[in-house]
Amino acid sequence: MIETLLEIDHVVLDFSQDGKNMLNLTIAFIMFGVALELKLDDFKKLMKSPKPALVGILSQFILMPLLTFLLAFSLKAFITPTIGLGMILVAACPGGNISNFMSALAKGNVALSVSLTAFSSFAGIILTPFNFAFWGNLYIKASTSGASSDLVRSLNIDAFEVLQTIAIILGIPLLLGVAFSQKFPNITKKILVSIKRISILAFLAIIVIIFTKNFDTFLTYIKFIFFIVLVHNALALIMGYNVARLFKLEHKTRKTVAIETGIQNSGLALALLFNPDIFPADLAIGGMTFIAAWWGVWHIISGLTVAGFWSGFSLKSEEEPAT
After folding, report:
1. Which residue, 124, 159, 190, is CA-closest to 277?
2. Distance between CA atoms of 3 and 224, rounded to whole angstroms?
3. Has this prediction a pTM greater than 0.70?
4. Domains in the chain and their CATH numbers?
């Protein structure tokens, strides 16, 4: 298996410069749509009810990268360094743009989900490069041995370069979205649902294009990546739920913390991976790209499955008793 995974590192996905630009624009558009829903009240809710919010932040931005580092390190004899780095990169990203929808479907604490989205969207501008640089470089040092040493040493993670890219892809669209919703509240109400639908469809279209252009390659290696992403995502969901349980939060809040922890903005991870200023074209990082691309598909499948299970596969709204 390890020999096959080593081959993945040297696979370069067929994705044109136009495709990369479209991916960046799609992520920016998604974040613009997210920002349209963000209000000052969302941040006030974080202050008024700090415990659930702090638990969510702890799970998403501190424990998730830590868990991922430990998982990748424990698997280092079975995976390549870049696959481990791909796991860490995804874990360092803020929550996915569909987490609010998943929380609503799961009959979770939607207000908390929106508040955490508000925080993670802006905090991710700083925390994503910090977590990726800290845990990624730590993992690189831990994984430097034998034949992989030359490759690993060439992967120097520059937090400033990551910060620059995230500031452009996330920061500017977020500020524009908040400003637009404040200036044109009536127009925002009319276009919000359409923008959310277009955002999800646009991101899925990008993933489909990547998979279609590289179908034979994915067919060859997906059976190895599939299990790694499945375990990683499952552990994230389980950890999020049980961290909230440890802090004695109610059941509907536990579900939201689990979803916020397990649904990651893998599109941002892909945008970073396709940036030559962060990852030069001559680096063998196929493993990272495979992980991020499959996360983009799998977290939707797992999120819908878990949300459906928690809701009893019912779309009817109902209040749940606290447990």
Report:
1. 159
2. 11
3. yes
4. 2-310 (1.20.1530.20)
